[in-house]
Every structure is written in structure tokens, then in C-alpha cells.
Amino acid sequence: MNRIKLFFALTIFLFTFSKFSAQSKDAKFENEKTAISKMLDDFNVAAANAEFEKYFSFFADESTFIGTDATEIWNKQEFKTWAKPHFDKKKTWNFTSVKRNVYFSKDGKMAWFDELLDTQMKICRGSGVLEKINGQWKVKQYVLSVTVPNDVVDKVVAEKSALEDVLLQELKSSKK
């Protein structure tokens, strides 16, 4: 009889402990999601306010920015060089997240996100990879994409074909 009581007590303890452990892990990730959301919102506000140093402080030293144009793939320093005149003239971008998803690696040291943004280009998609560095989330890679509704894809392709056909030929010939 004592073995049965011990078995049930142990089972209840293990069940309770595993449930508590899972809840605390979920709570940790919820806190991290909140921190990431705030960081990404602050990142967007810094751009809108043309705060050059603050905006670039959100990027890891080794990071990549991929813009909407096929030629826009820059490391942090290259992106800073490209962006500096826009920040100096206070002609930056104003993005506001309207829907955001955040995901985590099992160890919680890396996260990735996707979001829909309200921008001067209408709806865009921002996505990226974040790393926790010295207790702060930093952008390792950011990708900005213009969304294209399926109903107008053919029109958009027709509009951009002349420009991108030239670029495609250059890319294909440099690949050889």
C-alpha cells in the first residue's frame, strides 16, 4: 500500500514540476517577445526620427540589411554609408508594425521575426534574425520586402521587367 501511495505522490510531483517548468519557459519567452517587440518598435521610431546612432545601435556589429531593391544587400557599415545622407537630411522612413510574429531557438539565444508594416510604400514585410548579445537583442539580419497583392502581380512584373532583365543578365554572367 505504501508503494502505491509513494508511486502516486511521485507521479503528482513530477507532473506538477514538469508543468511548472513548461509554464516558466513559456513565461520567459513571453517576456522576451515583449522585449523584442519593444526593441523593434524603438528601432522603427529611431528611423522615423532620423536618429542615426540610435537606429544603428540596434544592429549587431556583424549584421546584414537586405532592402527592397535586388541590389540592396549591405553589411552594417555599408548600410550606414548608404543611409547617412538620408538621416542627415531628415528624409528617413517611418514604419509602424501592424502585425508581428516572433519565434525562438530552443536555447533562447536567437530569435527571428516577421511583421507587416504600414509604410510610405503601403504594406511592406519586415523580417529578420536577432541574437541576444550582452543581454540585449540585436539585429543580425533584416529583410525589407514590398508586398505585392496577387491580383496585380502581372502588372508589377510588366512594370519592372525592363529594369530587372538587365540586372538578371549581369547576375547570370557574373556567376560564370
TrEMBL record:
This is SnoaL-like domain-containing protein. It comes from Chryseobacterium formosense. Residues 1-21 form the signal peptide. The keyword Signal applies. Residues 36-148 form the SnoaL-like domain. It comes from the Bacteria. Keywords: Signal. The keyword Signal applies. It holds the Pfam family SnoaL_3.
